[in-house]
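SAMPLE LOG
Freezer: B-3
Tube label: C17
Construct: single chain, 95 aa
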Amino acid sequence: MVLITYDVNTTSAEGRKRLRQVARHCMNYGQRVQNSVFECLLDASQFAAFRHQLESLIDVEKDSVRYYFLGNNWKRRVEHVGTKETYDPEGLFVV
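STRUCTURE (predicted):
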């Protein structure tokens, strides 16, 4: 489990476009749990591809991305309180 957080500078039209691209890219790999926070179940090769693509989308002079590696025992490390419904990324996915 990898927790991905990002902060994209949106003071320009280009920044707003980057923000949409970053969010869309993260949605392809995981579940949004906060506005700019995603939980992703990725193996090493998936993470390498994800990271390479994500970092090609941002402007390193204006934006930032943080990766938190929670590991295989992530369920013991994540607690949720509040309004957003929680989910199980290892559970059944219904469309």
